[in-house]
Amino acid sequence: MEQDAELLDYLKGDGMSDIALFSPETLIDPYSAYKQLRDEAPVCFIKEMNVHVVTRYDLLRDAIRRTEDFSSKFDAFLGGAQQMMFSVLDDEQKQRALEVASKMIVTPPTMLTLDEPEHTKYRSLVSRLFTASQINLNASDVRRVIDTNIEAMRGKSEIDFMEAFAFPVPLVIIADRLGIPEQDRAFFYEAAAAAASGLKISPVSGEVLLKRMQLAVELQQLLIRLTNARRTEPREDMITILATSRLDDEDRLLTDGEVLSILNQFLVAGHETTTSTFGWGMLNLIKQPGLVDRLRGNDKLIRTFVEETLRLEAPVQGLPRLVTRDTDLGGYALKQGDMLMLRFGAANRDERQFPNPDSLDVDREKPGLQMAFSSGVHHCIGAPLARQELNLGFQALLDAFSSFRLDESKAAPVADPSIILRGMPHLHIRYDSI
To answer: What CATH number has the domain bearing residue 16?
Structure first.
């Protein structure tokens, strides 16, 4: 407990104007802090995390475009932040952690933490799975997964929406895309959830960290076993593509570490972000019950509703960039080696870009300008699939059920205090079938 408290203290910072931006309390509800920073210090150094935080929309877009000044090679930041979490381990747990770590395959940087041209070298291998035509071809499979979970909700009147719908729908869909066999699904779901939790960079106990590490090793073993199997018996799935594709410039197959690196990124991008958006979207419907009847049967308004939910509660709140040379951003001086933290969640509520930024407006013009999926060369490759799942999912929910409300007998929903992600672990609701 004492070590947990020390880790929490480490995450707290006085920042600018006493804003403890990365304290658990602020991370749960960061929006007033974001506004103050946008207005008073749109680029601000937070010494406790050793990062310069960018909160204004125009400056964030500028940083994304200037790839020669601001690099995506931020592995050191993620590694350092995750290592900080291990300060909760006692000596016996550290020894166990070393033993587990010795069994892990080292994963090199691939897509998320590379710049051009190396980034495209890997991204192009799987991009064909996420073209508009391919997404449309798979719409019936997505509907099947959604309908299965809708049917499981019928006959009930109260559920944990995250557990019953928001979590399983994206996870089953990404498992289908990857090509995970049915007999391995139960383990895969557990391990994938643990992998996403690791990226949250939230304080947890030593035993939880050790459990995550063990699951990570076993997940690696499963994915490499499947990769080897696909090289002799290929199928129509992502693992087959990664198992059989060759890097043209080197004329070789991907290494095990490269395959795992790419797959690990899709585990988070393919389910955790969509899961959280389903949760926040449902909460929006509960907070504004008049939307239910207005949205039902109107696919265009549902699409805007999804974009507004992504804008208001960006599933990835922020990602780092490494400063490659002495420069400035909006007149703020930066030195080579500095680390930026681009806060998409703050930029998405910038009143300079979005009128009435804290309100969900299904009549908003150009709602797709929101930055939940970033932009430029690192625009989320899975964005078309996520949008398809969210649009079809909310269409089905609105067609099946007439009203939604919080289950007042259960704990109120609250965000995870995560540095990177914007998740909601539980959302207990009541609802009525049509």
So the answer is: 1.10.630.10
Residue range 82-109, pLDDT digits in tens: 677 777 888 899 899 999 999 999 999 8
Please give the distance of CA 262 from its chain centroid, rounded to a whole number: 15
* Angstrom distances, CA of residue 211 to CA of 93, 105, 198, 313, 418: 11, 17, 11, 29, 19
Q: Which domain holds residue 371?
A: 2-433
Q: How far apart are CA 274 and CA 198, in angstroms?
A: 17
- Tell me the backbone φ, ψ of residue 298, rounded to 5 degrees: -115, 90
Please, is 106 exposed, middle or buried when counting C-beta atoms within 10 Å of its C-beta (0-12, 13-18, 19+)? Answer: exposed
Cα–Cα nearest to 320, from 342, 338, 297: 342
pTM for the model: 0.91
Please tell me the total count of domains within the chain.
1
Q: Which amino acid is at 215?
A: L
**Using N-to-C axis directions, what is the helix angle for 273-287 and 168-178, rounded to 10°?**
150
Write out pLDDT tens, residues 315-341. Answer: 999 999 999 999 999 999 999 999 999
Phi, psi at residue 118, to the nearest 5°?
-60, -35
Name the DSSP class of 413: P
